[in-house]
Amino acid sequence: MKTIASIVGARPQFIKAFVTSRALEGKFNEVVIHTGQHYDPEMSDEVIDQLGMKLPDVNLGIGSRSHGNQTGTMLIELEKTISEVKPDCILVYGDTNSTLAGALVAAKAGIPLAHVEAGLRSFNRAMPEEVNRVLTDHVSDMLFCPTDAAIENLKKEGITKGVHRVGDVMYDALLHNQWMVSQSTSILPDLQVEKGKYALATVHRAGNTDNATRLKSILDALGSLSMPVIFPVHPRTRFFINQAGLSVNSNVSLIKPIGPIGIVELLEHANCLLTDSGGMQKEAYLLGVRCITLREETEWVETVEAGWNKLAGVDAGLIRKLFETWHPTGERPALYGDGHAAEQICAILQNALA
Asked: What pTM was estimated for this model as a whole?
């Protein structure tokens, strides 16, 4: 049986790996390597526990560092681990430092590399995530794209070999988590909110969290909304809120990060999502929830083109105006596959590694 080394390190990657690992089970020997990029239990252990995932086979425990230090340390430790595992393929997800480190180790070792969520582009090279995804795509052998736009982006960069449109594994995960929500006790009463009568906010990107002016503008915007705002706070975001001495209005509830099941329930019943997360923009679209993106650009351009996502940056006035006056009316075309992306990825890997 062929061996696949799946490299993960951040909360969204655990969720993507969960559905992919289920598809790989029994067909490959999968070794899951956790870099430790997200080391806070609320960002990793809780996700693993709620989804019923098996624990990673290896945890490198690298933790939080500067981008260069973190990526360099990952390269050193992953190279050691990969030399022991001797995989037939390395599988990476998304656009984190863990993604790039896994990709470079594969390229240097001459091991076939598969990239899930290939071809996404924000066209903002100031974003570390953009650099990570571009470099990863250019050394990948199998590029699993969620959309036609992703395939077109790769084509413009001269990448046409090994490109596959499989749909989005996060849609697979969303369908599973929706079912889990239906089997669980609602968290809305504990948060003292009612369906459709609150906003959900998430902020974690360095461009927003590490800049006190931008972060303050976001918090001011949330505080100006005419509705309760539930804000599960990423550990790095809470650190910078405290460091800058920022506060929020009484309508904003700063709570601990919510697990993957709870966050789907919160999003599904929200009046609006305000976020700088790429994945949550897409999930809002899939659930029919309007989204105001707290960035000037997005990788998920089709959600904007379909009329369900608005780019507001951190302009507090624009954020409030969109929240109070804008309501999507258009259809939501099926953009992200049929909910079986992981199965398609597994079939392609089986064929490629036969």
From this structure: 0.88
The catalytic position among 34, 204, 269, 340 is 204
φ/ψ (deg, to 5) at 240: -75, -30
Residues 287 and 227 in one domain: yes
Q: What is the CATH number of the domain that holds 7?
A: 3.40.50.2000
Distance of CA 29 to the CA centre of its chain: 25
Q: Does residue 330 lie in a domain region?
A: no
At 103 the three-state DSSP class reads helix
The whole-number pLDDT of residue 50 equals 78
Task: Verify whether residue 269 is a known catalytic residue.
Answer: no
Q: Are residues 32 and 149 in the same domain?
A: yes
Residues 101 and 205 both lie in one domain: no
Encoded tokens for 261? 């099941």
Full domain range(s) for residue 190 = 177-325
Residue 42 has what pLDDT? 58
Residue 43 has pLDDT above 60, yes or no: no
Q: Are 92 and 7 in contact (CB under 8 A)?
A: yes
Overall number of domains in the chain: 2
Residues 264 and 348 grouped into a single domain: no
Encode 212-236: b = buried (16+ Cβ within 10 Å), e = exposed: eebbbbbbbbbbbbebbbbbbbbbb
Looking at residue 149, what is its pLDDT? 95
User: Considering all CA atoms of the chain, what is the largest pairwise distance in Å, rounded to the nearest integer?
Assistant: 59
270: burial class by Cβ within 10 Å (0-12, 13-18, 19+)? Answer: buried
Where does the chain have alpha helices with state H?
Answer: 11-24, 45-51, 67-85, 97-109, 128-138, 148-156, 169-182, 188-191, 206-209, 212-223, 235-244, 260-268, 278-287, 301-305, 316-325, 341-352
| CB-count burial class (<10 Å; 0-12, 13-18, 19+) for 13 | buried
Residues 85 and 216 in one domain: no
**Mean pLDDT of all residues belonging to the chain:** 94
DSSP-derived secondary structure for 290-312: -EEESSS--S-HHHHHTTSEEE-
